[in-house]
Amino acid sequence: MSLFSSPLSRGVRSSLLAAVLALAAPLASFAQTPPPAAPKRELTEKVHQAAQVLQKLIDEQKWDELIAQTTTILATVEPASFDTAYLSQLKVQGLLGKADYKGAIAPLETALSLSERYNFFGDKDLELIWLLSQLYGQIASAAEPNSAVQRENYAKAYTTLRRWLDRTPKPNPDAQYFAASILYNQALYDNKVDKAILQQAQVEAEKGLRMSIKPKEQFYALLMAISQQLGDFPKTAEYLELLVKEYPKNKSYWQNLLNAYLVQDTKGYVSAINTLERAQKLGLLNEKRDNFTLVGLHLNAQEYAIAADLFEAGLRNGTLESEQKNWELLATCYQQTRKDAKAIATLKEAIKLFPKAATLDLQVGNLYYMGDKYEDALVYMKSAVTKGLDKPQQLQALSYIAYLGLELKKLDDAKWAADKAIELDPNSKGAKDLQAAVNTAIEERNAQLKATTVTR
């Protein structure tokens, strides 16, 4: 993500125009003495006469005419002269007025270079350096992501801004934020993360943070993003806790805070639950997926009773999706709290909602089997097989049916299941052994019946 604002706002552009315009005013004497060979710091007669016309164009905001006339005059004056520096910064003003930021760079570089070489504008050079860094940053942010143009201009923006920071007597938080944001964007290039540059950005941002008693929101947001990219999620969470405290209605901050705790796995479960609950009290993060996340966190924390209550309420009031997996999870919660009867009732309710889902019948059958309720288990196992299961589950269910048929002396059910298992997997030793056991039981039954008939 780009942290450089784009495009320049009207207010920022106006202040930049004012700064450039101030340089066009009559120049007072400077404390520094220019080198002996330096051009004079005064306009030639020709440019002096044109200045009044140019000023009028500025007042009337006739930017096209201003650009055209300054370009024409520039072609007639000495390149290394005060005329060139003066006209170049006027041309910059016209180009900024048209929001031609790229076009404004070359004449601004010319004006600044001449001024720094010959001390034309004195301390006003700082304003030009600041403006130039802003323009480089603007071009970079508007360039194609991960392009050479973007990378080059971010580098120029930071180098230029560094000059300003090193020379200015009054550093300020905005400049520090600008420096940190440029470095942040430089660090994220071509889907790679340069941690060394990110750490440099962190230093610049923290320096700006300390410049204000009450730092701006953007500093915490930037430091949060930097920590996130560095993989320092506890630090990310710290900054986000400050942000949600100051801006409790900002949903994205709550979501990012939740994510910062979620990626910490078991260490972050309690904090993640707490974050979701705090956000939901404010009416945020209360969509169905958020509600499911909350239940899932309680499940992962093995708080099955709480998870069951949340599932039960959510499935009935519509704040959770009424999906088969959710009903199964609710049943699992009841199993974990040793409430098998409620687990069975939950699965039976799910069967009504999803009548073709054979796995639900299989789960009910398993629960009845584990509770030694073999008659009921047999009913649901047969139902599951009839509805159709995948091969491993089908074999499992058929094995149960065969066993239950033997146990309950329902040998017809047992034979049907054993024969079905052989059809499904002719090479299965388990199925063959089961079939043999069933056949033996049937032979014994038939022999007993025959003996009883003869006796009579």
TrEMBL record:
Span of the signal peptide: 1-31
Domain of life: Bacteria
Keywords assigned: Repeat, Signal, TPR repeat
Mitochondrion found in the keyword field: no
Keyword ATP-binding applies: no
PANTHER family on file: LIPOPOLYSACCHARIDE ASSEMBLY PROTEIN B, TPR REPEAT-CONTAINING PROTEIN PA4667
Name the record gives this protein: Uncharacterized protein
Organism, as annotated: Nibricoccus aquaticus
